[in-house]
Amino acid sequence: MPLEPQPWRAVQVGLSGETVDRYVDDWIVDLTDVTELARSTHSAVLDGRIEEAGRPLPVERPYPLPEAIRRRLGADG
């Protein structure tokens, strides 16, 4: 678990109108309280137990984009 800025970016998409209603009322099917996971991960990082801190976390993987979209977004490099 590197504790430094990562060489990739995240995309944040804004929702409005009917999409917000559907997102809130239909598309969210479950919520999970991860407060204790965040606390234990933070504690492990502060104690220098980086490998242990990362074990319970999901593995992140790049979202596969078609070549044309990658070029359009400038995500080639």
Describe the structure in your own words:
The chain has 77 residues and is mostly helical. The protein is built from 4 helices and no strands. It is flat. The two termini are 22 Å apart. The relative contact order is 0.12.
Please supply descriptive tags for the structure shown above.
77 residues, mainly alpha, 44% helix, 0% strand
Which spans of ≥5 residues are poorly predicted at pLDDT below 50? Answer: none
Mean pLDDT across all amino acids: 88
Classify the beta-strand content into a percent band: under 5%
Helix/strand class? mainly alpha
Short recap of the structure:
The protein is mainly alpha-helical and 77 residues long. The protein has four helices and no strands.
